[in-house]
Amino acid sequence: NRQFLLDSRPQGEARADNFKLVTGDTPALKEGEVLVRHHYLSLDPYMRGRMDDAKSYAAPQPLGQVMQGGTVGEVVESRSPRFQAGDKVVGMGGWQEYAVVSAEQGGLRKVDTTHVPLSHYLGAVGMPGVTAWYGLTQIIQPKAGQTVVVSAASGAVGSAVGVLAKQRGCRAVGIAGGPDKCRYVEQELGFDACVDYRQYADAPSLARALKEACPGGIDGLFENVGGMVLDAVMLRMNDFGRIAVCGMIAGYEGKPIPLAYPQVILRSRLLVQGFIVSEHMELWPQGLQELGQLVGSGKFRPRESVAQGLESAPDAFLGMLKGRNFGKQVVKLV
Ligand code: NDP
């Protein structure tokens, strides 16, 4: 069983040598446990925060232990009546080829792959999808006809935000890096517009481009990035607009991302609310149901960046932190 451990904490930017590839044993199953062979690992921005030991909402990833993270795979052996060999499951198996998991406490869930491909349970029909659903429906709460903007729009969370906003009759506008991502957001995801932030040197010039894309101003912002992108959108917010603060990826490697126009929060009487999706587990079934239907019916075709083989995990992860992924970043093992 090959595994990646967190070997050291980053000094500044994370590097491939913070991780160590080892070959470990798979312990024999005890009563109530199952053995899962992982087909895909999920790589997510939150993992960068856990590599540090700074205070955060989640405990740091312990050094010398398998990198924690979401996984999908197949049960190959079971000593629990709840799972059988052959079941497809989603869990938190970490960066390794196999995981021994407690059927009761391991957070393992059976999934149906008849209409939804297995890997999408790590993305659109999984944690990132529910993140989009939660921020949009519980914080932004848009009405039909309102304009919702989302940053990192081609990514796992951002793509779902736009699709869910369109379902609610909103104008959905994305912000993404580069012409290919913007083309995908408009043409394949069905957003009304997408602005390539890389074309603009500062927040005021990006805000001018957003004025064209959002002629009626912006009622809801789903923020994934922070920094210049957030500043620009804030300049276009309508009175009583809502900002769901989901992520601040521009600052995850330690770069300061000061807020340029905090006075807009007062002037426009904005609601600004951060959230952590894992603190709202009671709403996951509702979100997953809508997302599963959208993906299963083909109305939402999420895109993935697939890295091949366990050994590719560190580089794929570091690339995602630099925006090199295009869609949900996963690692394919089988
Ligand atoms: P994505 O698939 O969106 O990948 C990250 C993307 O961020 C990159 O592809 C890149 O796209 C974009 N990006 C923009 N600015 C930067 C920058 N300065 N440095 C690096 N990347 C940048 O990831 P996810 O969909 O998984 O996550 C999106 C956000 O949601 C993250 O901030 C994440 O932390 C957050 N999140 C929050 C949760 C919560 O509970 N609050 C749960 C899950 C995710 P581009 O090329 O378009 O710039």
From TrEMBL:
Sample GO molecular function, one term: oxidoreductase activity, acting on the CH-CH group of donors, NAD or NADP as acceptor
Keyword Transcription: no
Keywords noted in UniProt: Oxidoreductase
Species of origin: Ramlibacter monticola
Coiled coil: none
Tree of life domain: Bacteria
Signal peptide start-end: none
Database matches in InterPro entries: ADH-like_C, ADH_N_2, ER, GroES-like_sf, MDR_fam, NAD(P)-bd_dom_sf
Residues annotated as domain Enoyl reductase (ER): 14-331
Official protein name in the record: NADP-dependent oxidoreductase
Pfam families: ADH_N_2 (PF16884), ADH_zinc_N (PF00107)
